[in-house]
Design goal:
mainly alpha
């Protein structure tokens, strides 16, 4: 999946969680609801399988991920753990790391791995799209 398509799908998924959060609870500000929504489970990992494969490979080679932001590092370490578990459960699968990552990135993710500010920007963009479509 291309990066721009992933960004669009991430924004749509986050907006869906945002709407559910508003129905379930009371939030004093957009910052508060964005922080809460960004920590909710996501329908998938919003990262390209090839990039995930390269980063997981770096961990395996003990190469630092210092150039990634903390949310991205957290996401990659989660995928690394899932990759190790997959290999343990399927020792003779014969699949490449990239093919395994294609499987794993489509699994539900424990969170969106995005900052509160990043979540706010995505949500405001989605809110504008919804308002535009509805003629607001």
């Amino acid at each position: 999946m291309r990066d721009t398509e992933l960004k669009r799908k991430k924004a749509e998924a986050l907006y869906s969680v945002y709407k559910r959060c508003l129905e379930e609870g009371h939030f004093a500000s957009m910052r508060e609801v964005a922080r809460y929504a960004s920590k909710q489970p996501a329908p998938r990992f919003f990262i390209e399988a090839k990039i995930a494969s390269d980063l997981v490979g770096r961990i395996g080679r003990k190469v630092s991920l210092i150039n990634l932001n903390s949310n991205s590092r957290k996401q990659v370490w989660q995928l690394y753990g899932m990759y190790q578990k997959y290999l343990a459960e399927h020792p003779d699968c014969g699949l490449s790391r990239e093919r395994i990552m294609e499987i794993l990135v489509d699994e539900p993710a424990p969170e969106f791995y995005i900052t509160t500010e990043g979540a706010r920007r995505l949500l405001y963009g989605e809110i504008r799209k919804v308002r535009k479509r509805s003629g607001w």
